[in-house]
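Researcher: Let's continue the batch. This sequence belongs to Glycosyltransferase involved in cell wall biosynthesis, and it's 260 residues. Same format as the previous ones, please.
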Amino acid sequence: MTPEAFAVVVPAQDEAELVGDCLDSVVTAVRGAGVPVAVVLVAHRCSDDTEAVARRQLSRLSGRSEGRVLRLGHGTVATARSAGNMAALHLLAAYGVPFDRTWLLSTDADSRVPADWLRQYGRWAATGAHAVAGHVRVSGWEDGESAVSRTAREAYNHLLRTTGPHVYAANLGVRADAYLEAGGWPDQVPGEEHALLAALRERGRHSVSAPEIVVGTSGRQAARAAGGLGELLGRLASAQSTPAGTFARAVPRQALRSQP
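Model: Same format as before. Here are the C-alpha cells for Glycosyltransferase involved in cell wall biosynthesis:
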C-alpha cells in the first residue's frame, strides 16, 4: 500500500553538535512529501543544547509537516524510539490515516538521510513490504576513504563483505500496524532493530533489505550505546595492528549481521 502518512523519529543524547545537520536533512527529505509527516526528536538524557538546536530546525516545517521535541529522562534508546513513535502517531491522529497506510521511519542524530528518503521507502511500501531495512555509509570508513588507518578500514570492509544483509536503526522503516502488532521497539539494547524485525517475522510480516537506500552516519568511535556501531568502530581502530581476519572474530557484530 502506498503510504499516506510518515513519522520520522530521531533519538538524541547530547547531540547538539550533530543533530542540526541530521534534522536539516530530514526537513529536506520531508519537503514536498505530499502527505502528512510528523517528525519527533527525542532528547534522551540530554544536558547540552540538543533541544534548542532541534527546535530551531523543526520550526522550518510547514503545512502538513509537523515537528515536536520530546524530553525523556529515563530508559534506553529503545525506550526513546518507542516514545517518539507514539508521540508521532499522536500528531498524525488528526489526519485520520489508517495505520496500514502509515510508515514509521527511524534514524539517528549523527546521521544524514538522502533527499528522496521518504520516496524510496514509499516505493517499497507499495510492493507490500511491512518493514524495510536500508543501509548506512559510515563516514571515513568505506573503501577509498582515509579517516582511519588502512588496516582498520580494511577490517571494517571485510566485515561488510562477509556478513549481512545488515540492519541499522539509523535507516529502518516499519508499517505502523505491523509495528503496533509486534509490540513496538523491544527494550533490548544493543540490537533493538534486530529484535523488532524478529518480532515482525514471528507474526508473518514481510521485511526486505534495501541496500540502495543509504543513510550517511558518523564514523565516531566513542560509543553512545554499549555493543553498538560506535563500539565496533572503536575496537577496530584500537586493534589496527591485528590482521583483518582476526577482527571478524574479535568484535561484536550485532549491528552488522542480522537478517532483515
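Researcher: Any comment?
Model: The mean pLDDT is 88.
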